[in-house]
Design goal:
heterodimer, A: alpha+beta, eight-stranded antiparallel beta sheet, five-stranded parallel beta sheet, B: 191 residues, mainly beta
Chain lengths: 511, 191
C-alpha cells in the first residue's frame, strides 16, 4: 500500500480524497495556487506545497510542477480528482516516467476511452449501441451541414476534447448551424486548447443514466449500479440520484454488462463511468466514458456502502477487487445536489466573494462534501462549485424529504448560491414523479422564473417576521444616523465598529 | 458547525451601542418586501421588545444570531430570517424563499437603502461580477432589444453575456475586448 499520496486538485474533491487517505493511514499531500493558500484542502492536508499563480495553466495544470512536488515530498502515488488533469494522458505518462503510480487508468486506456470519437468507435466495434452521427471530427462547416441533413435535425455539436457542456451546442434548424459551429469551436478552443467538433443526432427528451464501473489489474471488472443525472442546466449536471427512478433489474443488467464490456475492450482499470442516453422506450445509447472519479460518485457510495476513493487507491496499488458482481448490493436511494456560487436570479452568473455566515445541515441520512468555511473568499479563477449536499433515504420519497429538510437548514451569506433552485426542483411534480429528461430543467426554468417568485406576496406571519428582521437590520446598520442617538453620530458609529472588531476577534478560527 | 457566537437579544446590543441610550426608545420604519409595504414600529421599554406592524401589536421577540441572521418568534411561531445587502437593494431570505426588500426610515422619511433602478432612461449597464471581457457584441449606435447581449464576460471558466436592461441604442461602450472588469463596473451605456 502507498505511504504518501499527492492530490493534484483543489476544492471539495481534494478534501474528499484526503479523507480516504486519512482513514487508510496514508499521508495526504496538497498542492495550491497563490489564491488557494487559505483554502480548506490546504488546511486539512498533512503537507501542502505552492505550485504557482492563480491561472490553472500555471498551477493545477502544470504537470512538471506537480510531479516535482510529488518527488520532492517523497510521494508514491498521485490522485488527479476530477477536472484539471484528471483526463489528460500526459499526467499518467509523467507519473510513470517519474516512478509514481497514477491512481486511475493507464494513459493508453484513457486515450482509447476518454476520447469521445475513439470510444464511440470502440463501442460500435464491441456491439454497444451509440447515437447516430459522426465518429471522426468534422473538418468544415459544409461537412457539418451535410451530416446534419443526413441524420436530421435537431443535432448536437460537441467538442472532441470536451466535457461539462463546454464547446457543446444544440441546433434545432439548419439556419442556426453556422453560428453554433463558430461558438462551439471557439469555446472548445478556449476551454481545452482543441477546437475540433463532432456532430450527432439529438435525441428528444432523453434521460442521462450512467454506469459506475471498477476494474482491477487482475482481470476483474464490476459495475456498481447506475446514477441518473437528467436534471441538467445547459448540459451541466445539477442533481444526480441513484438508483434511476425508471430502472428495472433487466435494464440495469443490460446497461451494466455493456459498460463492463466496453471497459474491458479498452483495457480499462480503476474507477470509470460509462454514460448513456436512454430514450422513452428505454433504449440506451453510449454517450461517452469518463475515465476518472466523478463529481456525483457519493450517491453510488451511499447506496452501495462502498468508498470509491479507497477502492481506487487499492486497485492502483495492485490489489484485486475485494468483491464480485454478485456481492454488489444496492440499498435505498440517494440524491445529490451541486451547490454553486452562482446567482439563479441573475442568469446563474458566478458569484465569487467572501463567505460571511453559514450553517451546514446535519442529521440522519445527510452527507456534505464541500470545501468552504465562513471567512473564506471564493476565488473567481475556478469552477464555482462550493460542494455537494447528499441525502440518503430508505426509498426515493424519504431521500427527497431529507434533502429538502437539509436544504432548509443550509445557508451561506455573503455570496449567492443556487440552493433555492433545488427546493423548487424537489417540489416540482415532474421531479417527484421521476418524469425528467436532459432538457427538463431548462424548460422548467423558462416556465418558472425566480423573479416572479421574488415578487410573490409573503403570507402574513412570514411577512411580519421579514418586516421585523428588516427593522432589526436597519437598527444595527444605521446606528450612527439614528435620530435617537444621544451621543451623536460619530460616537455611535465608532462603538459599532469596536463591536464589529470584537466580533472578529471572538470568532472561532474555523466557525 | 452551528454559529458559535452566543446569540444576543437585539436590544442589548442596541443599548451597548448607544443606539437607545435613554431607556424607552422606538424606531419607525417602512419595509417594502416583495413589493408589499409594511409599517414597523419597534420599541424597547426596560429591555422588553414591542413590535407593531401596520397598527397591529404583535407578540414577537427577535434575536440577532449572527450578522444579518435573525431568529424571530411571533406568537410562538419560529422563523429564521436572513438579511443581506445586494447592490443597492436588500434581500430577505425566509422559509426557503427570497424577497427583494427596501427599508425607509419613517421618521426621516427617506429611503435608507436601495434604489430599484427602473430600466427606463439612460442606463449604465454594469458587469455583475469580476472577470474578463472576451467579446464585445455591439458597437456604439447599434439599436438593441431588452435582454440582448452587449458583452461577454468570462469568469470562473464560464462565459456569460451581460445583457441590456432595456430596448434602445448603445450610446457608448466603456470596455474593450481583453479588458478585466470589476463587479459593478460599467460596460456600456444604453439610451
Amino acid at each position: 500500500m502507498f505511504r504518501k499520496i499527492l492530490i493534484a486538485n483543489r476544492g471539495e474533491i481534494a478534501i474528499r480524497i484526503l479523507r480516504s487517505c486519512r482513514e487508510l493511514g496514508i499521508r495526504a499531500v496538497a498542492v495550491f495556487s497563490d489564491v488557494d493558500r487559505a483554502s480548506l484542502h490546504v488546511r486539512l492536508a498533512d503537507e501542502a506545497y505552492p505550485i504557482g499563480p492563480a491561472p490553472s495553466r500555471q498551477s493545477y495544470l502544470a504537470i512538471d510542477k506537480i510531479i516535482g512536488v510529488a518527488r520532492q515530498a517523497g510521494c508514491d502515488a498521485v490522485h488527479p480528482g476530477y477536472g484539471f488533469l484528471a483526463e489528460n494522458a500526459a499526467l499518467p505518462r509523467a507519473c510513470t516516467a517519474a516512478g509514481l503510480v497514477f491512481i486511475g487508468p493507464s494513459a493508453e486506456a484513457m486515450q482509447r476511452l476518454g476520447s469521445k470519437t475513439a470510444a464511440r468507435q470502440l463501442a460500435r466495434e464491441t456491439g454497444v449501441p451509440t447515437v447516430p452521427g459522426t465518429i471522426e471530427p468534422i473538418q468544415t462547416l459544409d461537412e457539418a451541414l451535410a451530416t446534419a441533413r443526413a441524420t436530421g435535425f435537431p443535432v448536437v455539436l460537441k467538442a472532441v476534447a470536451g466535457g461539462g457542456g463546454k464547446g457543446m451546442r444544440t441546433i434545432e434548424q439548419e439556419s442556426d448551424l453556422a453560428s453554433a459551429w463558430r461558438d462551439a469551436a471557439s469555446e472548445a478552443q478556449n476551454a481545452f486548447g482543441d477546437g475540433r467538433l463532432y456532430l450527432e443526432k439529438y435525441l428528444v427528451r432523453p434521460r442521462h443514466i450512467e454506469i459506475q464501473v471498477l476494474a482491477d489489474h487482475h482481470g476483474h471488472a464490476v459495475f456498481l449500479g447506475e446514477r441518473e443525472c437528467s436534471v441538467q442546466r445547459r448540459y451541466q449536471k445539477v442533481i444526480e440520484e441513484a438508483p434511476s427512478p425508471i430502472m428495472t433489474p433487466d435494464l440495469r443488467r443490460a446497461m451494466g454488462d455493456a459498460a463492463v464490456k466496453l471497459a474491458r475492450a479498452g483495457g480499462y482499470t480503476n474507477a470509470g463511468t460509462v454514460e448513456f442516453l436512454v430514450d422513452a422506450s428505454r433504449n440506451f445509447y453510449f454517450l461517452e466514458m469518463n475515465t476518472r472519479l466523478q463529481v456525483e460518485h457519493p450517491v453510488t457510495e451511499m447506496v452501495t456502502s462502498l468508498d470509491l476513493v479507497k477502492l481506487q487507491i487499492a486497485i492502483a496499488a495492485g490489489a484485486p477487487l475485494p468483491f464480485s458482481q454478485g456481492d454488489v448490493d444496492l440499498r435505498g436511494h440517494a440524491i445529490e445536489c451541486r451547490v454553486y456560487a452562482e446567482d439563479p436570479e441573475n442568469n446563474f452568473f458566478p458569484s465569487p466573494g467572501k463567505i460571511l455566515e453559514r450553517r451546514v445541515p446535519t442529521g440522519p441520512g445527510i452527507r456534505v462534501d464541500e470545501s468552504i468555511y465562513a471567512g473564506w473568499t471564493v476565488p473567481n479563477e475556478y469552477d464555482p462549485l462550493l460542494g455537494k449536499l447528499i441525502a440518503w433515504g430508505s426509498d426515493r420519497d424519504e431521500a427527497i424529504a431529507r434533502l429538502k429538510r437539509a436544504l432548509d437548514e443550509y445557508y451561506v451569506t455573503g455570496i449567492r448560491t443556487n440552493v433555492g433552485l433545488f427546493q423548487r426542483i424537489l417540489d416540482s411534480p415532474d421531479f417527484r414523479e421521476g418524469e425528467i429528461h436532459t432538457r427538463w430543467l431548462d424548460d422548467f426554468l423558462k416556465q418558472q422564473s425566480p423573479t416572479s417568485e421574488a415578487r410573490s406576496r409573503a403570507s402574513d406571519s412570514v411577512g411580519d417576521a421579514a418586516a421585523i428582521a428588516l427593522a432589526m437590520w436597519h437598527a444595527s446598520r444605521n446606528a450612527g444616523s439614528s435620530p435617537h442617538s444621544a451621543n451623536g453620530r460619530s460616537t455611535a458609529e465608532s462603538q459599532w465598529k469596536t463591536e464589529g472588531r470584537r466580533d472578529q476577534l471572538n470568532r472561532a478560527p474555523d466557525a | 458547525m452551528e454559529d458559535r457566537r452566543a446569540a444576543r437579544p437585539i436590544e442589548s446590543r442596541a443599548g451597548r451601542l448607544g443606539l437607545f441610550p435613554d431607556g424607552p426608545t422606538n424606531l419607525k420604519i417602512e419595509a417594502k418586501i416583495g413589493g408589499r409595504r409594511t409599517a414597523v414600529e419597534f420599541s424597547s421599554v426596560d429591555g422588553e421588545m414591542r413590535f407593531t406592524i401596520d397598527g397591529r401589536a404583535l407578540d414577537a421577540n427577535a434575536v440577532e444570531i449572527a450578522r444579518g441572521v435573525y431568529s424571530i418568534l411571533i406568537g410562538g411561531q419560529s422563523f429564521e430570517v436572513r438579511v443581506e445587502s445586494e447592490g443597492a437593494a436588500l434581500r430577505v431570505s425566509i422559509a426557503g424563499r427570497e424577497y427583494s426588500a427596501d427599508v425607509y426610515d419613517k421618521r426621516q422619511w427617506r429611503r435608507c437603502r436601495g434604489a430599484t433602478a427602473e430600466a427606463e432612461g439612460r442606463q449604465q449597464v454594469a458587469a455583475p461580477m469580476p472577470g474578463k471581457v472576451i467579446r464585445v457584441l455591439v458597437k456604439p449606435g447599434d439599436s438593441v432589444e431588452r435582454g440582448q447581449g452587449l458583452v461577454v464576460v468570462e469568469a470562473m471558466k464560464m462565459q456569460n453575456e451581460v445583457r441590456s436592461p432595456k430596448s434602445g441604442t448603445v450610446e457608448r461602450l466603456l470596455v474593450a475586448e481583453g479588458q478585466a472588469v470589476n463587479s459593478g463596473q460599467g460596460v456600456a451605456i444604453v439610451n
